[in-house]
């Protein structure tokens, strides 16, 4: 019985030593982590200066950066508004449905890249589906295809050779 008591005392002492060592280690980590010592408005200002790719990379750096970036919806707003220049209808519908700026951006980012290329005429001279770059394509709804078709028809009208009649 005394041996059990001694073992319990030793384990309690070692638990205390371990927990105090862990607390000391955590204190050292927080002293060396200058990011956590910055005021929140400074942190948000820094992340707000990043482009979308840099912000996504920063969110993968550590858990605290990920939490700040993921939970600060206004950081995603300017990027979402940039996507809106191409996908206005889609972005507006998502926002009306109650999606956050971040979710709206995630839902429309790839589509906006593909749609921008279609609207700019990059795929105007493609004669078959085999010629389309599969890896860059993204599923689009009928309204989006309608917009693209209208632009293509206008492009064809403006590039038709004009015949002069005498």
From TrEMBL:
Q: Where's the F-box domain? A: 32-79
What does UniProt give as GO cellular component? cytoplasm; SCF ubiquitin ligase complex
Its organism's taxonomic lineage begins at: Eukaryota, Metazoa, Chordata, Craniata, Vertebrata
Task: Give the metabolic or biological pathway.
Answer: Protein modification; protein ubiquitination
Keyword presence, Cell membrane: no
Q: SMART domains given for it? A: FBOX
* Main function: Substrate recognition component of a SCF (SKP1-CUL1-F-box protein) E3 ubiquitin-protein ligase complex which mediates the ubiquitination and subsequent proteasomal degradation of target proteins and plays a role in several biological processes such as cell cycle, cell proliferation, or maintenance of chromosome stability. Ubiquitinates mTORC1-bound TTI1 and TELO2 when they are phosphorylated by CK2 following growth factor deprivation, leading to their degradation. In contrast, does not mediate ubiquitination of TTI1 and TELO2 when they are part of the mTORC2 complex.
Q: Name one Pfam family in it.
A: F-box-like
Q: What is this protein called?
A: F-box only protein
Residue intervals passing through the bilayer: none
